[in-house]
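FORM 7B: Structural annotation worksheet

SECTION A. Query
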Amino acid sequence: MSTEIVQVRDVPAEDAEVLRARAAARSMSLSSYMRELIHDETSRPAMGEVLSRIVTRDSIEADGDDIRSFIDDDRR
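SECTION B. Predicted structure
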């Protein structure tokens, strides 16, 4: 796996302190913590991608009673 160096400028001091504290609370370096945050963010689809998939799905006709019935059936 290749890696890249990413530098973020002009981070407010208060935000940097929060990140340092969160990293320390997990016994991690700030770099490791930020790497984990970036990985978590890029592992999930963006909201726009999710919404695009939803729009292409077929819709179903269901009212509240139907939905309750679906839930009850699934619980059995």
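SECTION C. Observations
The CA atoms of residues 43 and 51 lie 17 Å apart. The chain has one domain: 1-57.

SECTION D. Sign-off
Analyst initials: ____
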